[in-house]
Each structure stands twice: as C-alpha cells, then as structure tokens.
Amino acid sequence: MKKENEEDLDKLFKKGSEEPANEPVFREADWDAMEQLLDQKKKRGGIIYWLPRLGSVAAVLLLALLAWLFFKPQLNKPKNENQVAVVHPKADTGISGASARHDMADSSKQKINTPANLAQNSDHPGAAKKTDRSYPYLPEGHAAKKPVNAPVNALAQNNGRKNISKTKTDIVSPGLNKTNNTPAIASPIAQVSNNKDNSNSSAGALVANNPATPGTKNVAGTAGKDSSNATILANSMPATDNKKDLGVADGKKDDGKNNVAANTAKPKIKAVGTSVNPNRAIFAVTAIASSDMNGTSAFGGRAGANLGALFSVSSGKWTISTGGMYSIKPYQESFADYHTPYVFQTNPSSVGVNCQMIDIPLNVNYQVYHKGADKFTLGTGLSSYIILREDYTFNYTGAYAAGPASFSVVNRNRNYMGILNLDVTYERQINSRFGIIFEPYYKLPLENVGASQVKLQSTGLAVGLNWSLNSFKKPN
Amino acid sequence: MGEEELHQLISGCIEQDRASQKKLYKVFYGFSMGICLRYANNREEAAEVMNQGFFKVFTRIETFDRTRPFKAWLGRIMMNVSIDYYRANLKMAYTDDLDKAEHLSDGDVTDHKLNYDDLLKMVQKLPPAYRTVFNLFAVEGYTHEEIGELLNISPGTSKSNLHKARQKLKQMIADADAPPSNRNYGTGMDYSSIVAINKTDLHGPYFDKI
C-alpha cells in the first residue's frame, strides 16, 4: 500500500511534468539574460580572435625593424667627400665582399677623410704597390700626396692585393673617361644608385677634386660590373658604352627609395662618398584605399570598398609587401553557386551577400620601368581573407515562398593564402619620402570563399600614399 | 514544430544567427524551463540554470547528431546543467523533522487532488539532495545505480534520499490539505514554535494557489 502510494506520487509528479499545459510561459527577460550570455561569449571570442593576429602583425613589424637595423650599419660608412674611386672588392680584387664589408662597417678602421686630412695624404693611389683597393680610395692629383690611411693600407696588404685587375679598377678620375657617357661626371651630385644596373653613379666628387690623370690605370674598359657590392661608395665606374647609366647623370632622381647617393652626410660638398649599399633595403608604409567590383564572374558584381595599410621592403627592383585591408565586399550569386547543406523547401533564385573582411596580402612587386619620378611595377601575391561577417539575403521568384529570408554568419570563414593578387602599380614620387600610387588589381580566388563557398573575384583600382621610412633626401 | 523548420533553426544556430537562436529558445522554453524548475529552488534559479543550459546548446550545437531527436538531446543537457548547479549540495542529508513524517498516515496520494503546480512547489522546497534523486528516479526513470553514477553517490544513499524525499512530500501534501484549524490535530507536530514556522511555510503554496 505504501509502495503503491509512493509510486502513485512518483507517477503523479511525472505525469504532471510531461503535461504541456503545465509548461511555464515564455518570459522575455529570460531571453535578454540569454542574449547577454551570448554577447559575452562573442566579446571573449573577439579578444581570442584578435590577439594572435595582432601578435603576428607585431612580429612582422619587429622582424622588419630588426632587418632595418641590420642593414643600417652600412649607412654609417665614412662619408668621404672628394672621394673618388670605388672598389670592387668582388671577384677581381680578391678582397672578399664580406671582409670588405666588415671593414667598411668597422668605422674604426676607416679614416674619415676630411679635406684637412686629405691635405696630408701623400700617398698616391695610382701607385700600384700601395694601392689600397679597399675603401676609402684616395683621390689622385693634388690629393695624391696625402698619406694613405695606414690601417686601410694594411688591410690592402693583408689582403695581398697589389693589383687590381684592370678591368676592375675604378679610378676615380672620371675626367678620363671621355669615351664614357658619364655625364654624371659633370653632375655635381654624387650619386649612387642602389640599382644593380646603375654602376655608373657619377662621381660627382671626383669632378670636384680630381683633375684627370691620364696616366692612371684603367679607366676605360672598366667592365660594367654591377656595383652591387656592398662596399661600393661612390661608384664612379667609367662606364663602358653598354653600361646603362641610370638616372644618375642627368640628375634624375632615382626612385625616392633608392636615392641613396643623395647623402645626408655632407650636404655642402657635392661629394660622393656615400657609402650606400645599392641593394639597401628601403622600408615603406603605404596607406591605401580602393574600390572594386566583386562578383562570381569576372565582370559581374557589385561595388565594394577597401581601406588599409601596407608595409613594404624594397631592395633593388624587388619589393615585398604585406599589411591589412578592411574590405567590404557585396556581391550577388545565383543559387546554383550557393552551396549549403541546408535543404530549401523552395529554392531562392539568387542570393545577395555582403561580406566584411580583413584582407591580408603578401605581394611581390618587380619594377619594370623607372624614369624620374615615375615608376611602374608589376606585382603578384597571395591574400588571406579573414571574413568577419557575411550577411545573406535570399531572393525568391514567387511572391510567397516559404523559406528563410536571410541569415548571417559571423566570424567563421577564413581563406589562408587562398586568393591570387595581380596588379600593376604606377607610383609617382612627390619627394624623397612620399609617393602616390595608382594600382589597378585583380583578385582571383584559388579556393572557395565564404559560407556559401563561391569563387569570389574582385577587380578594382587602388589609390595610395607611400611613405618611405628610410630614404635619403637628395642634396640640392 | 515541423522537422524542416527545426532543421532550419538548427542550421541557423550553427551559423550563430541570433534570430534562429531566439526562435529555438522560445520554442523549447517551456520544455526546458519545466525540467529546470523541477531541480531548482524557485523560478529565478531555474531561469539561470536554463540559460546556462541553452548556452551549452548554442555553443555545442555543431556537435549535435541530426539523426537523433533534438528534444532528447536538449533535455539531457538541461538535466545535467541542473544537477551541476546544485552539485555542491547533493551530499547533504537533512535529518531534521523526518521523524515527524514517519507518523503520517499513508492515505492515498491521489485523494488529495493535487495539481501539478502545487506539487512542483513542494518538490522545490525539498533539499537539493532529495529533490534531485526524486526527479531522477520518479521522472527521468533512472535506477539507483545510475543515479549513483550521475551524482557520485552510492546507490544506498540514493535510495535513502529518495525515501526521504517522498516522506517530506507526503508531509507537505498532508499539511496542505489539512484545514488550518486542524493542522496540529493528531499530527504530533504541534510541540514547538519551529514546527509552527514550518507549517506556515508549508501553507505558502496553498495560499498562492489562487
């Protein structure tokens, strides 16, 4: 009896609990509390989302800064005004580039030649025996009497270098080079172009200081070796005819980033002596904005916008850049392109999508043309999309269709290095630090994008302002 | 709610669509709250527990096997969250005034014309240790061994707690039915002021019924 009662009690309770009429009524306040829980989770998720990304951006910038510091010592080479020759410590001289660079970098070994110094220098660079082919190279002529910098000489001797192959000598007196198209010589501006091809930097200084010394060793026929050597100062290579004279002579400005020769060091002296690595890395930051057409075919689509910043490193003709762009990409796709596991009761005819994302490109650009202040580059690269939000709107053909009208996907989809970038960039240099960029581009997806997994293409035009962080001002 | 509509809602929830989440919440509110009310002390705590349960649902919905019934999955989550909420209290055993219950007559429970709400309120007044075991045994249908595993207690403790739960409920039922003037008559419970306070509490649901 007791047991039955107990069981009755159990059953009574159980039965009552299952009765739908006994179910409590919905309270909006409970949903509000639920929403707060969900929003909290989102915020936490946000931090979790951003922290690694910001961390990696910070890491990239840190690496770049370290790279810059690494390259920097070369800029500290003694600025030798009136400096003339340049050495090619490379193959011909037998001085290893590395060791020469080392010495170059070691300012304690260098004698900084001020005019006063030079006056005392009695050594003649032309004298083979004592030729010191390492930097700095002493001028000829009246300056030839100056004493050679002992440590420097010692260095040369240590290297066992007594002669330098004729093809490699760089004698400073550009005046000799009548055959050469070194209009640079006439140019008061010492220039060194960073460009590999530009081995004819004018030895502006030379002109100032060096009367031509016909007797000196080879001037002519110096091979147009690229002055890509780190130890080169002012490259007064007498050019052979086939040498390109890039931008130097006519005082053309090399692209702002590469305007090394314009040396900061001694603005008063039109001197060369700039110890600049022609392949010195130039760092730049670009602010960029663009509008583009986005769609699932090359020409269809809706207009979107992008805004962001890029950080780039240039060396020679090559530039690598990365950064982040905030993009809004609306597009339309036919239902055939819309992929979802959900089975629609009635299929929509098309789907409108609005995506907000972060586009992280990694691009490589090659300079194909450069004249004066204008520069053209071709570029390619890969982008990653971090899709922040996708809003889908379903368009049905009938007036009454049972089906979802829209839904959103938040912070779910990613494409790492999944979009191919193609671009042509035109840069107009405003001054040594700033340039304006116009860049038509095309983004081709290599993989499917977004929750609906479509091949989203974009094409548009970007405009940007480029700021070189470590270019030098040209002396006037 | 139709299968397709549920399926669509689930898809929306997987995409973290807020509208879908709200709809799902509303649709299963009654069912979920019903479960949580049985395990909780009152409606406010039940709501808190239920929201925690839904939070788990929304964050784990991707793992839900769509070939299985959703309601059962949801119900299981609600039960587990409810148990966890009171887990700290589950091992307590209230021994007070149980002896009084032994003297209660074992009249037929169904005679008392209890409605569910009243019964629910009485269950809510049970100590969590008894209440949980009572729910798991009487409503969910677990054996004492299973309950022991769920609550990390011995089957013996489960049986004991169940017995105590029933006793207390009967006591409450009897007290609820007894007319106020007779409430102390013959029950042997009129011997202390504490009892009187208890009685007042027990009369709470009786008066709130309206």
Give your account of this protein's structure:
- The complex is a heterodimer of chains A (476) and B (210).
- Chain A has helices spanning 2-18, 28-71, 97-105, 115-119, 150-158, 183-186, 204-209; strands spanning 282-295, 302-315, 318-334, 350-371, 374-395, 406-410, 414-429, 434-445, 457-468.
- Chain A has 476 residues and is of the alpha+beta class.
- Chain A has two domains: 72-278, no CATH class; 282-468, Porin, CATH 2.40.160.
- Chain A has an eight-stranded antiparallel β-barrel.
- The relative contact order of chain A is 0.11.
- Mean pLDDT of chain A is 67; it is low at 80-91, 124-132 and 148-273.
- Chain B has helices spanning 3-14, 18-27, 29-39, 43-60, 70-85, 98-102, 116-125, 128-139, 144-151, 155-177, 193-208.
- With 210 residues, chain B is an all-alpha fold.
- The longest helix of chain B has 23 residues, at 155-177.
- Chain B has eleven helices and no strands.
- Chain B is globular, with a radius of gyration of 20 Å.
- Chain B has two domains: 3-85, Orthogonal Bundle (Rna Polymerase Sigma Factor, Chain: A); 98-208, Arc Repressor Mutant, subunit A (Orthogonal Bundle).
- At the A-B interface, helix 1, helix 2 and strand 6 of A face helix 1, helix 2, helix 3, helix 4 and helix 7 of B.
Task: Label this structure with key terms.
heterodimer; A: 476 residues; alpha+beta; Porin; 2 domains; eight-stranded antiparallel barrel; 7 helices; elongated; B: 210 residues; mainly alpha; Rna Polymerase Sigma Factor, Chain: A; Arc Repressor Mutant, subunit A; 11 helices; 67% helix
